[in-house]
UniProtKB/TrEMBL annotation:
UniProt xrefs under InterPro entries: Kinesin_motor_dom_sf, Myosin_head_motor_dom-like, P-loop_NTPase
Family recorded in the similarity comment: Belongs to the TRAFAC class myosin-kinesin ATPase superfamily. Myosin family.
Protein name: MYO1B protein
Region (Actin-binding): 184-206
Stored Pfam families: Myosin_head (PF00063)
Organism: Malurus elegans (Red-winged fairywren)
GO molecular function: actin filament binding; ATP binding; calmodulin binding; microfilament motor activity
Keyword terms of this UniProt record: Actin-binding, ATP-binding, Calmodulin-binding, Motor protein, Myosin, Nucleotide-binding, Repeat
Length: 348
């Protein structure tokens, strides 16, 4: 019910995770269709980059304003921080404040004077500004660090390396907000290099009870998790895509013309293969470098045919091997019989 600095930076992290989810699923999915030259009707979705910019922008972001207030000389309070937000973010469509210049919020009695509200991707959240400045400073005075470093206990000394007189740094330590922002940026950079899989959990009720589904709660979670946009893009798009070379290599045994070797471009080989299997044209599309398959059942059909063909090939290999083995044994016995017969005739 009461959200302060801690909940603010947690929600900022959630916004960044939602942003990377949007980029890697919705945005990248649609851009790939355009890149591959696939006929595609663009599906609109909400991109929360505008909310992330409101929080982390280096000049006008809330974290930048908070750091500026913490570092400027003079009397600094949570109220002066809120006044600065009202001046800088007043016209932002996702920022609301009782003191804001936007007249539509001046009569909002649900918003106290010491609070501001951000319209996050998941919904509106109201933050109490009390404690923002102190929590962001997160200062440990230099003389306290030096005193702890002089302790005789080795662990205490290791916990306060900044107290070492030989390594005194006169620079002001970074604020909690800037440290958290740098940490989130490192996390995002790390996630961008991976191929993540998403598991979305829906909480059916607040009572932790079995067989109880709160429809309003479930619908709210589905909306703010972005599942509706994701499902719309997936249903309108293609369930499976693969470069032509690996696709031809995997399924070439299903067609006599492509088995065992196809001499020519891989795309032509895939086209011959799909025509031979009589797969409906609406079930696939040819991109510039990939084959796109619309429904999973088409892929399952290909896999079933491949599995059956592999079993047939294994039977054929076994049959040929057994025939070769029996013939080899027969020819050996035949040569032996000729030798034995010739020796017997000479003896007789």
């Amino acid at each position: 019910q009461d959200n302060s600095f801690e909940q603010f930076i947690i929600n900022y992290c959630n916004e960044k995770l939602q942003q990377i989810f949007i980029e890697l699923t919705l945005k990248e999915e649609q851009e790939e269709y355009i890149r591959e030259g696939i006929e595609w009707t663009h599906i609109e979705y909400f991109n929360n980059a505008i909310i992330c910019d409101l929080i982390e922008n280096n000049q006008t972001g809330i974290l930048a304003m908070l750091d500026e207030e913490c570092l400027r000389p003079g009397t600094v309070t949570d109220d002066t921080f809120l006044e600065k937000l009202n001046q800088v973010c007043a016209t932002h469509q996702h920022f609301e404040s009782r003191m804001s210049k936007c007249s539509r919020f001046l009569n909002d009695t649900s918003l106290p004077h010491s609070c501001f509200r951000i319209q996050h991707y998941a919904g509106k959240v109201m933050y109490q500004v009390e404690g923002f400045v102190d929590k962001n400073n997160d200062l440990l005075y230099r003389d306290l660090s030096q005193a702890m470093w002089k302790a005789s206990h080795s662990l205490i000394k290791a916990l306060f390396p900044e107290g070492n007189p030989a390594k005194i740094n006169l620079k002001r330590p970074p604020t909690a907000g800037s440290q958290f922002k740098a940490s989130v940026a490192t996390l995002m950079k790390n996630l961008q290099t991976k191929n993540p899989n998403y598991i979305r959990c829906i909480k059916p009720n607040d009572k932790k009870a079995a067989q109880v589904f709160n429809e309003a709660l479930v619908c709210h979670q589905i909306r703010y998790l972005g599942l509706l946009e994701n499902v719309r893009v997936r249903r309108a798009g293609y369930a499976f895509r693969q470069p032509y070379e690996p696709c031809l290599e995997r399924y070439k045994m299903l067609c006599k013309q492509t088995w065992p070797h196809w001499k020519g471009p891989a795309r032509d080989g895939v086209e011959v293969l799909f025509n031979e299997l009589r797969i409906p044209e609406e079930e696939f599309s040819f991109g510039r470098s990939k084959i796109f398959i619309r429904n999973p059942r088409t892929l399952f059909k290909l896999e079933d045919l491949r599995k059956q063909r592999l079993e047939d090939l294994a039977t054929l290999i076994g049959k040929i091997y057994r025939g070769w083995k029996c013939r080899t044994r027969f020819l050996l016995m035949k040569r032996c019989q000729i030798v034995i017969a010739s020796w017997y005739r000479r003896f007789a």
